[in-house]
Amino acid sequence: MKNTGMTRSLDTLGRIVVPVEMRMTMNMNSGDSVEFFVDDKTGFMAVKKYTGVSCKMCSAVENLTYFRDSFLCMDCIHKLKGNIDCSPIPTPSIKEDTHIHKRTNQPAEKLLESLKELIREHPDARQYDYAKWLGVSQGRVSQLKKLL
Length: 148
Description:
4 strands, elongated, about 30% helix
């Protein structure tokens, strides 16, 4: 649970207005029923949109079973168990990123020689390019240039 930073005052009849941002986030509309939850020890009160006693998936009201804070009907349970009317879970496609290379620690002398060669071959290249070709950060290229 997170603190929204929003505060509201009770009116003379003890009513409170739920901010529109919170109503939109919680999919609450005018006329919807809400449930109140209270912890006497901490003085904490929570409000939740009332969904009633019906199947979470098909809104049936008969043959319900309570499972992880939700009601499910036996028909939906059998469909889930048998994988009936269920779309398959797509397998994530793994893209190979050619831009990311694992950097290895190389001796400074070897990096200096490689950098000297690169500077001779490509004198107008940017520091970013040298870093990419050497497999080090731009900051490391800057350090190596100071050593030259």
